[in-house]
Amino acid sequence: MTEEIRHEWPLFEVFVRAKRGLNHVHVGSLRAADPEMALHHARDLYTRRNEGVSIWVVRSDDVVSSGPEDKDAFFAPSGDKVYRHPTFYSIPDSVPHI
Amino acid sequence: MSFDDDAYGALTDHDDDSRWAYGTGFADPMAGVPTAVPDDVDRADLAAYCLMLGDDVLVMSHRLQQWVTRAPELEDELALANIGLDLLGQARLLLTRAGEAEGAGRDEDALAYLRDPAGFRNVRLAERADADFAYLLARLLVFSCWRLPLLDRLVASRDPVLAAIGAKGVKEVTYHREYAAQWVVRLGDGTDLSHRRMQAAIDAVLPTAGELFRPHEVESRLAAAGVAVDPAALRPEFDEAITQVLDAATLSAPAGGEVSGGEMAGRAGRGRDGIHGPELTEILAEMQELARALPGGVW
């Protein structure tokens, strides 16, 4: 067997949208040789129990993420800005996701 | 739910509070389908026909599940298991219908587990052992390209149960065909090695496809009565789909004519008449062992 065949398939991240109107949610990752295969695999791995109406797959390599070293500069400054929270509105009970 | 008092609910179709991780909205494809056999339909023929279609998918399903723990990747293993389970679900409905039409008190289990190989009416294509992954894909492609237009026509059957089974199956087999086609293209248009092995599989499988299109007398009678599908009519659609996939995969049909030609299966004896190879005997020995050892066993 040659090196070419031995190498691993690239990693993809999978996002599934459960219902019309909700967001795509990250559900996990998988390996696939190409984006079409990733979509098939996502369908077979993550929507077997009727979980989804839409799937996104994206190469994990293409995800840009913040690092642990950014934590203070990125997130700490919002910790004391209470006025940014819409606490002065009342939320109707019938709005479950906000 | 009115839009005025709950705009969000209207937007999301949120009719329960279950969590998305276990999806809801499961539907029984047979709900509300009348099960009475139409008066002018020959019950023995209907039973025989349901047995043919049911055995096709029961045996194919068993071959697919044999790949579990042997597939090249975990993801594909699950894909093959899913496809096998789809087909097993179709087999249960078809064998149940065969038992109802027969009226001798045999249920799906009795038909699946307590018949000998000679009682099986599946096409030989379903029982063939897979030499490798490419062979499985060639078989799945041929099976799906034949089965999809069959199920599509079955939706118009005068038997309401067969029509419902057709409607359910079309959505499932559309995916099976897509899965097989993508893999055949990937391997055919891949490396020299994958191309060679995919071509070898096509060369081995396609010439056996002739049996799929030769009507059994039961099929002919029921097709005339608007109950069954005449398999000969499926050939143009099959040829077109196969040709499209082979072209995209840079593969060629085996030498010697049209893609679904091949009379090899005819010479070997027809599965529709209960003539099978040792491969089916092996499958049934495995599938039926427990049910025969423990009659009526439940767990």
Automatic annotation (TrEMBL), chain A:
Entries under InterPro entries matching the protein: PaaB, PaaB_sf
Pfam families the record matches: PaaB
Highest rank taxon of the organism: Bacteria
Alphabetized NCBIfam families for the sequence: PA_CoA_Oxy2
Protein name: 1,2-phenylacetyl-CoA epoxidase subunit PaaB
Species of the source: Paractinoplanes globisporus
Automatic annotation (TrEMBL), chain B:
Gene label: paaC
Organism of derivation: Paractinoplanes globisporus
UniProt xrefs under Pfam families: PaaA_PaaC
EC number: 1.14.13.149
InterPro entries assigned to the protein according to its UniProt record, in alphabetical order: Aromatic_CoA_ox/epox, Ferritin-like, Ferritin-like_SF, PaaA_PaaC, PaaC
Top EC class of this enzyme: oxidoreductase
Keywords: Oxidoreductase
Source organism superkingdom: Bacteria
GO MF annotations in UniProt: phenylacetyl-CoA 1,2-epoxidase activity
Protein name: 1,2-phenylacetyl-CoA epoxidase subunit PaaC
